[in-house]
Specification:
308 residues, alpha/beta, Rossmann fold, Alpha-Beta Plaits, 2 domains, six-stranded mixed β-sheet, four-stranded antiparallel β-sheet, 10 helices, 14 strands
Length: 308
């Protein structure tokens, strides 16, 4: 898949000496949903601000579909839509007027049919003549997306898009993001909600202390770093684990009625088959078994912990 965004050797050091970003390299594929995860202060918003031309880097380059975002700022910026965390709008402007005005800021000619399509897609059409002050928080969040889409960008940045949004609206937003991706828009989102990235993203990047520590396909990340657990419910309680089973690193429950076997998701079934055979040879019978798998949240916590 062709790359639409290339970030090369980007660093940002402020006058105070604080290094917010350190040698960031990142390639975003056209038409993907890319989730950038990281704790507060990791550098997510700084990186987005540099890509969007709001903040100048101390070093490095950003190419947006081949356009340098400093030397060819207008062309690069016109391809990007940004939905910031803060809900900043003119409270007494109407929905239609503020979205149309946003389009004009990018030098695009009026296109009422496009504005109508965007507002309908975001369930704001019936509010087009309402003043923004009358909208709910969720509607204002959708309005920010409408403003960002007004000039028909190819890349949409969503900085914490569902912060402070209720569960139902979050689900609606996820569906909207998928719909936008299906129309060819490349989506880059930052989020504190691990389930959001797990639900939507094609690829995931993890940033910590101003450095990208990992970028991978979501499924591949889960496969590489995820752990699975096989939980065996025993027919008879055990007092201890026989020494001949010590190589499996089994854990026994406090009541002796369950055994837990943790293994890499990359492991072959041979390991489990060998365990079950050895259990049988040791006279340990089980009446039920189940498997559990690491969540993305557990993987993320592990990655950040390893980077400390």
């Amino acid at each position: 898949m062709q790359d639409i965004l290339m970030v090369s050797d980007i660093s940002k050091t402020y006058a105070s000496g604080f290094s917010a970003l350190k040698n960031i390299n990142l390639a975003i594929r056209r038409g993907e949903i890319f989730a950038l995860l990281g704790p507060n202060g990791a550098g997510k918003t700084t990186l987005i601000s540099i890509i969007c031309g709001i903040v100048n880097p101390s070093a490095g380059t950003v190419l947006v579909s081949g356009h340098d975002n400093i030397r060819d700022y207008r062309a690069a910026r016109s391809m990007i839509g940004l939905v910031p965390q803060e809900l900043t709008t003119d409270a007494f402007e109407t929905v239609w007027a503020t979205v149309a005005f946003s389009r004009g800021l990018f030098g695009k000619p009026p296109n009422p049919s496009h504005i109508e399509k965007v507002l309908k897609a975001l369930s704001l059409w019936d509010k087009k003549d309402n003043k923004i002050i009358t909208l709910s928080g969720g509607m204002k969040r959708r309005l920010m997306i409408a403003k960002a889409l007004s000039h028909e960008p190819q890349i949409l940045f969503l900085d914490e898009p569902t912060a402070g949004v209720d569960v139902v609206l979050r689900r609606d937003m996820w569906e909207l993001v998928r719909t936008l991706r299906d129309t060819g828009v490349t989506i880059i989102l930052t989020t504190h909600y691990i389930d959001e990235a797990e639900e939507m993203a094609d690829r995931i990047g993890v940033i910590h202390r101003g450095e990208i520590i990992l970028v991978d396909d979501k499924s591949e990340l889960m496969r590489k770093l995820g752990k699975k657990q096989l939980v065996l419910q025993l027919q008879h309680a055990l007092q201890h684990i026989p020494s001949e089973l010590s190589k499996y690193g089994l854990e026994i429950s406090s009541d002796g009625c369950e055994l837990k076997y943790t293994y890499d998701t990359q492991s072959e079934r041979i390991g489990i088959d060998a365990l079950l055979k050895d259990l049988g040879d040791a006279g340990i019978l089980f009446k039920d078994l189940r498997t559990t798998e690491s969540s993305l949240e557990e993987i993320f916590v592990s990655l950040v912990g390893d980077a400390q």
